[in-house]
Design brief:
This protein has two domains: 97 residues, Ribosomal protein L30/S12 (60s Ribosomal Protein L30, Chain: A); 143 residues, Alpha/beta knot (3-Layer(aba) Sandwich), CATH 3.40.1280. Helices cover 34% and strands 20% of the residues. The radius of gyration is 20 Å and the shape is elongated. It is an alpha/beta fold.
Length: 256
C-alpha cells in the first residue's frame, strides 16, 4: 500500500480527466469506477483492477477486506480523493481498470442495439435492463453516449461486467445478426401485448432503441424485420427510451 499526497500525481490527473470527460476512456485506455457498489460488481465478475484507491478514513476500517483487491493499492487524503470525483457526495474508494477489449459480435446472441442515444442515464438504465432480462450483448451505434464513461457506469450499477459491449458500430454490422431485429414505432406494427399473447415474441432477437428525439434512423429501421407499438392508453405521445426498453425486453424475456 502506498500513501499518495500530491494532486499532481500523473495517474491522479488521468483519473480526474476520466471523471470529467465522457470520452477520455477511449483516449487513455482506462476506466474509472467510483464507489463500493461498482467496485464489488467488477470483482464479482472476475475483473481485477490495476489500481485501487481509498481515502485514509475508509482504509483504516477496511484494510483487511481490500488489501488484495488490486495489483496496486493507494490511499490518499480524503480531500484529495474528493478532487477526483464528479459526484456531489464523493465516494471513498475507486478502481482504475484497463479498458476491456471489445468482443466480436455474436450473430446469435440476444441483443440490444442503441442507435445514437445521447443521455448517459438512459444508456446506463438500458444496460441494467439488458442484464436483468438476459440480453447479453449490447451494440452501440456510432454517436451513442460512451458506454464506459463514468456517468453511464454509475447508471448501469454494475451491469457492464456481465455484458458483451460493442461500441462505434454501424448499420452494416447489424446485417451480420442472424436473429430478428425488432423496433418500436408510434404508428406502425402490432401492439406488443397482442404479439406476446399470440406467441410472436422470443428472447432470441435484437431490440433496437433509438435516439431520444429522432428515434431509430431510417437506415437502421430499414433492417428491422418487425415494427412494434407499445399501447399507451393514457394518450402520451411517446415514452422515455429507457422505459420503452424495459417494457420490450421484459416482454421478450417472459415470452418463453
Amino acid at each position: 500500500m502506498k500513501l499518495i499526497t500530491s494532486k499532481d500525481n500523473p495517474r491522479l490527473k488521468s483519473i480526474r480527466r476520466l471523471a470529467q470527460d465522457p470520452q477520455a476512456y477511449r483516449k487513455l485506455g482506462w476506466v474509472w469506477l467510483e464507489g463500493d457498489h461498482l467496485c464489488r460488481a467488477a470483482l464479482a465478475r472476475g475483473f481485477k483492477p490495476e489500481l485501487a484507491i481509498f481515502t485514509e478514513s475508509i482504509w483504516q476500517a477496511s484494510e483487511f477486506e481490500w488489501s488484495q483487491c488490486a495489483h496496486e493499492v493507494w490511499t490518499v487524503p480524503d480531500d484529495l480523493f474528493a478532487g477526483l470525483s464528479a459526484l456531489e457526495s464523493p465516494a471513498k474508494m475507486g478502481f482504475l481498470l484497463t479498458l476491456p477489449e471489445p468482443p466480436e459480435l455474436d450473430p446469435h446472441a440476444a441483443t440490444v442495439v442503441l442507435d445514437r442515444l445521447q443521455d448517459a442515464g438512459n444508456v446506463g438504465a438500458i444496460l441494467r435492463c439488458a442484464s436483468a432480462f438476459g440480453f447479453k450483448q449490447v451494440v452501440a451505434i456510432k454517436g451513442t453516449a460512451g458506454l464506459w464513461s463514468t456517468k453511464v457506469l454509475r447508471a448501469g450499477m454494475g451491469a457492464h461486467f456481465g455484458l458483451q459491449l460493442i461500441e462505434s458500430a454501424s448499420a452494416e454490422n447489424l446485417e451480420s445478426l442472424k436473429i430478428p431485429l425488432l423496433g418500436t414505432d408510434v404508428h406502425e406494427g402490432p401492439y406488443l401485448h397482442d404479439l406476446l399473447k399470440q406467441g410472436g415474441l422470443t428472447q432470441k432477437c435484437a431490440w433496437v432503441m433509438g435516439h431520444e428525439g429522432q428515434g431509430v434512423s431510417a437506415e437502421i429501421m430499414a433492417l428491422v424485420t418487425q415494427k412494434i407499438r407499445i399501447a399507451q392508453p393514457g394518450g402520451e405521445e411517446s415514452l422515455n427510451v429507457a422505459t420503452a426498453a424495459a417494457i420490450c425486453l421484459h416482454a421478450s424475456a417472459t415470452s418463453m
